[in-house]
């Protein structure tokens, strides 16, 4: 899970831990990262949505991609990563998925 969280951090994705292997995530294309403290804090910047979307609210809300990540352990040290889009443009979500897979060196 630490590899997945590190990859999400590199892609400037905000997340909130729901369970040990389940995260609610939000990605706004073009936002700056939140630094290394994201891995150490129990709650991540997803909680305060109004402070993030202040400058150009109309454009930012259209491009926000919300999704959930669930990690499953399969047999023989194999893992399955389930990404489910909750809200936002489909193509931006697919771009994010491709970038995440490249970041964790699957493709």
From TrEMBL:
Presence of the UniProt keyword Nucleotide-binding in the record: yes
The protein, known as: non-specific serine/threonine protein kinase
Catalysed transformations (reactions): L-threonyl-[protein] + ATP = O-phospho-L-threonyl-[protein] + ADP + H(+); L-seryl-[protein] + ATP = O-phospho-L-seryl-[protein] + ADP + H(+)
Gene encoding the protein: KIN10_12
SUPFAM superfamilies in alphabetical order: KA1-like
Domain of life: Eukaryota
One Pfam family recorded for the sequence: KA1
Species classification: Eukaryota, Viridiplantae, Streptophyta, Embryophyta, Tracheophyta
KA1 domain ranges (all copies): 58-106
Organism: Turnera subulata
